[in-house]
Amino acid sequence: MRVKSVSTNPIAGQEPGTSGLRRKTAVFMEPGYLENFVQSVFDAVGGLAGKTLTAGGDGRYFNDRAIQIILRMAAANGAARVLVGRDGLLSTPAASAVIRTRGTDGGLILSASHNPAGEHGDFGIKYNIPSGGPAPESVTDAIYRRSLEIDRYQILDAADVDLSTTGIRTLGAMSVEVIDPVDIHAGIMQSLFDFDAIRALFASGFTMRFDAMHAVTGPYAKAVLEDELGAPSGTVLNGEPMADFGAGYPDPNPVHARTLVELMTGPDAPDFAAASDGDGDRNMILGRDIIVTPSDSLAVLAANAHLAPGYSGGLRGIARSMPTSRAADRVAAKLGIGAFETPTGWKFFGTLLDAGLATICGEESAGTGSNHVREKDGLWAVLLWLNILARRRESVREILNAHWSEFGRDYYTRHDYEGVDKAAAEALMADLRRRPADLPGRRCGALRIAAADDFSYRDPVDGSSANGQGVRIFFEEDARAVFRLSGTGTAGATLRVYQERFEPGSGELGLDPQQTLAPVIAAASDIAEIHARLGRLAPDVRT
Ligand code: G16
Fold it and tell me: By residue range, what is the domain housing residue 430?
């Protein structure tokens, strides 16, 4: 076996500010593309000599070949060991758990998250730091800079490593430890939640469906829900991971998980349902005839977390991304703990979790998690919900109604305009950014603008700052609209418009958020001139 040093051209790699590289699969399969990024990571973290890495992915098309390339490159770069999930699989939260529990020098996660997979779909890769979290901007910027100047990469000339069974293999001078992808994560879940209470809930006839969407969470959900907690076989739907995710779109929202939504409104609806995304970090929670918005889910989980053994001592603080509704802030205020508002992106929670300022974090984009790992964790959210349901013995709807009666309700909806012209979307945002000073006082139908700004953040722990994180418009009527461009798409641009309004008291429980929010939606559309600029009359997705 010999180390090859292959000449290559620089690539326009991961853009500064994004936490990973996502592109069409065909781009990743071009000679040298993946290799350039991986070598850029190894160089940017000061080389790999003597280090131990974690590696795994969500099993999408090209995962199997990419993992072998990474192993051969890690060996050529002098790594001592790589821990890799059996068959190259690791969900994003499980990879974070492995990095932390085994103390590895970071890890590489192969996934384009909830984006569709396959030869014509998307692929992605990201580097997580030794704390287990997504790399902060200082690291991703170093990777980006390196990717622009790199002219060669190192790879071992060797055969594929057998990843089909657990055990220790060698690759040149490096050892490859093939681990069970589920064990470490499942052990953490067991330490946090009241498994006896959840077992008793299932034994009492409580019914549930978990849609793994043919993505990575199937084996995790089966091991915990069916094998450990006694949920009947068949509770986990679409539980076999597939390279093309069964030709589906593994984004657990009301559009892409429509079958599950229909099941919950039909006569055979189980008591509870949930879904997770491609790499297992996002979640969707449903009760009979009700979809819980991610913002409400965060607030309910925070308000009831003390019912789970792992959080029985109370929470230190709650953090949410800026576009997430303010429901969680109301819980923090009542509990007398800190509430933090960060830019979109899980990486911004890392310093707060490390410093013990926040225990639970969440985002409107269907991510919730805690200090047990440094990624959002779909199965964790589902298990905390189950723990709460097991202890309260009320339905999802009853729990939400009680929550809104106590805290008031933040009606919330996100509208996505997908695949729009990038230049037009960027111009729309640039114009909004120029206008905050002119907007206060302006009437928009029944609403009046109180204030407007472009969100900027200063990290209270390390003092780093992030500007231009989304335009916020506050209305005098306790309502808010937020505009930002998605950072996770691979074609054109996606404009996200987040609209919310607070109603104290019971929050008029029966109302449809689209109707309740109609004045805010109209005002947002008018202020940003969405129709005129993007040529769109209605959003593609409403969540
Ligand atoms: C990623 C980040 C999330 C963030 C989301 C925003 O999610 O990990 O923290 O909320 O992007 O997406 P967008 O920029 O499209 O609104 P994921 O699940 O794709 O890794």
Answer: 410-542
Which of the four pLDDT bands, split at 50, 70 and 90, describes residue 507?
A: low
Verify that 374 and 422 share a domain, yes or no.
no
Question: Residue 510 — very low, low, confident or very high, per pLDDT cuts 50/70/90?
Answer: low
Distance between CA atoms of residues 271 and 3, nearest Å: 57
Q: Is 278 in the pocket of ligand 1 (CB under 6 A)?
A: no
Q: Are residues 173 and 207 in the same domain?
A: no
> Is the CB of 281 inside a 6 Å radius of any atom of ligand 1?
yes
Mean pLDDT, range 208-227, rounded to an integer: 96
Q: Which atom of ligand 1 is nearest to the CA of 115?
A: 19
CATH number of the domain at 32, please. 3.40.120.10
Residue bearing the CA closest to ligand 1, atom 15: 486
Does residue 330 sit in the same domain as residue 422? no
Same domain? For 368 and 435 the reply is no
Task: Give distance in angstroms: CA of 493 to centre of ligand 1.
Answer: 14
Angle between helical axes of 294-304 and 378-392 (0-180°, round to 10): 50
CA of 39 to the centre of ligand 1 (A): 25
pLDDT for 350 beyond 80: yes
CA of 247 to the centre of ligand 1 (A): 22
Torsion over CA: 18, 343, 186, 96 (sign) = positive
| Smallest CA separation from ligand 1 atom 19, residue | 113
pLDDT in tens, 99-140: 999 999 999 999 999 899 999 999 999 999 999 999 988 899
Number of C-beta neighbours around residue 504 at 10 A: 10
Domain count, the chain: 3
Distance of CA 450 to CAs 148, 191, 363, 411, 478, Å? 44, 47, 25, 19, 9
Amino acid at 286: L
Atom 13 of ligand 1: nearest residue by CA position: 486
Task: Assess whether 260 and 377 both reside in one domain.
Answer: yes
Over residues 155-184, the mean pLDDT reads: 97
